[in-house]
Amino acid sequence: MAKKGLTWNNLGFLASDLILSNLAFIAFLGLLATIYIANAHYAERNVRNVQMLQKEIKDLRWEFMSLQSENMFNSMQSIVADRVKDEGLRMFRSKPNKIVVEKE
Q1: Distance between CA 2 and CA 71 in Å, rounded?
Q2: C-alpha to C-alpha distance for 14 and 8, rounded to whole angstroms
């Protein structure tokens, strides 16, 4: 007597029936996997953008400090006096005169 049981033929039919009956759930899982992958790519792109912006901020900070030190140097009294000497301006050596306006 041959034993009746599960054979590959019967198991394949059960598997295909199981897949067909749960096709909506499998499609949902596929959609979730796609969203997960897209989210990972989006996060990586954001990380790259943040790193690029941090590098740009660092460069701009260095440029600002360089311009600030150059401005401080150019605004020194001796440097300004040397630059305006050619235009006929000179430093006023005496005390400034005080103008007093009386109210009526």
Answers
A1: 100
A2: 10
Q: Which residues contact 80 (CB under 8 A, 6 or more apart)?
A: 74
Is residue 88 within 8 A of residue 81, CB to CB? The reply is no
Long-range interactions of 86-93: CB distance < 8 A, separation 24+: none
CA 90 to each of CA 6, 71, 87: distance values in angstroms, whole numbers, following the listed order: 110, 21, 9
Averaged pLDDT for residues 26-36? 97
State the chain's maximal CA–CA distance in angstroms. Answer: 134
Domain positions in the chain are 8-86
Q: What tokens does 42 get?
A: 């989006």
- Tell me the one-letter amino acid at 71: N
Rg (CA), the chain: 41
Q: Which of 1-5, 48-52, 55-59 has the lowest mean pLDDT?
A: 1-5
Write down the pLDDT at residue 11: 59
Record the tokens describing residue 103, joined without a space. Answer: 């109210």
